[in-house]
């Protein structure tokens, strides 16, 4: 059966990046379609009528939605290539827990850093660093969250590395000096082609945020 | 055997009810520990240091947190009885999507729809109605979200929607009615009529009284903050 894969995505989305990394890790070919979120395609609206969001992975015409769910789907369908989730239930549960932690905390708090100022921004920055430190503690002495190899949590978190520069400049703080272990982990991940090929230039991400702020009317 | 599985929960929490049901459906013996959330146990704080929330499942001393994560763990560890998720990867992805939709969208929108005021409430009411329509659309023509048998999405959705009917009663609102959502109500009644499912629910009056007291306390705290 021909495997037709279309990914509806945007270059800057950390959620979309997760899916691209997973597909690339597994050497799976896919067609990439860049969406303009100010002018969503009919295909996107048809494939994700409830949320109207990217990423959406369309596999042989059927849509899979929500980045974490897409990555798990890809991992289950192509389970023999570069498995991302562990095989045993308890480590799998731990991986899902930490991916959920990243989902609940990193994006929203990060967003506060570049959309607010003054005390609110300072508080968001402190909160953000706190979450990164929690992740560092979980990483411990392991090279990756997945252990010896890139795993589900790594794929979930690493896209935000391309946004770190934007957070740092916006919030006037250094992630490197606060979380050196996490930065070492990020650089380790970047040595994988699936990651380095997917993550955009951090300076371009920062430019994007500046444009977005203008559009949203945020000073 | 009972000592191997512990569930830290609270009698009023729909998230806790989910796990109770999942364990019962798998025919598992477990030790239930009622938490006082105003005075959390050492065991809870040690088992879930990141969020400090219930439910937490402790299996052979290993803690698992987040109700949907726990449900998948239970399903993967005890595979043979009453599978909660389907085997097909696409069907699993769809099930996970709906469970996430309920947790991340429906519940929070419903809170706003019932508790907020003014334009924010109006917008939330509109959104909540849309979400319920989506749920009805997914359920239509099926016995359960899971198909012939109830599964992951039914368990995830039922206790939340059940809880929302309690909140609705407390707020004397009529956002969810049988007239507006006949498919959802028929499905809820079917599950309420199931002995194992009903056994996980607290007595209705007790639940209503509890939620009423909690809402009153929250409203008082909010008005004090405004006045201050």
UniProtKB/TrEMBL annotation, chain A:
One GO term describing the cellular component: cytoplasm
Main enzyme class: transferase
Taxonomic path: Eukaryota, Viridiplantae, Streptophyta, Embryophyta, Tracheophyta
Keyword Transferase among record annotations: yes
Residues covered by the GST N-terminal domain: 3-82
Catalytic activity: RX + glutathione = an S-substituted glutathione + a halide anion + H(+)
Domain GST C-terminal: 88-216
Documented EC number(s): 2.5.1.18
Keyword flag Transferase: yes
Pfam families noted in UniProt: GST_C, GST_N
PANTHER family per the UniProt record, alphabetical: GLUTATHIONE S-TRANSFERASE, GLUTATHIONE S-TRANSFERASE, GST, SUPERFAMILY, GST DOMAIN CONTAINING
A Gene Ontology biological process term: glutathione metabolic process
Annotated family: Belongs to the GST superfamily.
Species this protein is from: Linum tenue
Keyword terms: Transferase
Protein name: glutathione transferase
Coiled coil regions, renumbered to chain: none
InterPro entries: Glutathione-S-Trfase_C-like, Glutathione-S-Trfase_C_sf, Glutathione_S-Trfase, Glutathione_S-Trfase_N, GST_C, GST_C_Tau, Omega/Tau-like, Thioredoxin-like_sf
One GO MF term attached to the UniProt entry: glutathione transferase activity
Automatic annotation (TrEMBL), chain B:
SUPFAM superfamilies, alphabetized: GST C-terminal domain-like (SSF47616), Thioredoxin-like (SSF52833)
Annotated GST N-terminal domain residues: 3-82
Protein name as annotated: glutathione transferase
One Pfam family from the record: GST_N
Any one GO molecular-function label of the UniProt entry: glutathione transferase activity
Organism in which the protein naturally occurs: Linum tenue
GO CC term (a single one): cytoplasm
InterPro entries xref list: Glutathione-S-Trfase_C-like, Glutathione-S-Trfase_C_sf, Glutathione_S-Trfase, Glutathione_S-Trfase_N, GST_C, GST_C_Tau, Omega/Tau-like, Thioredoxin-like_sf
Enzyme class, broadest EC rank: transferase
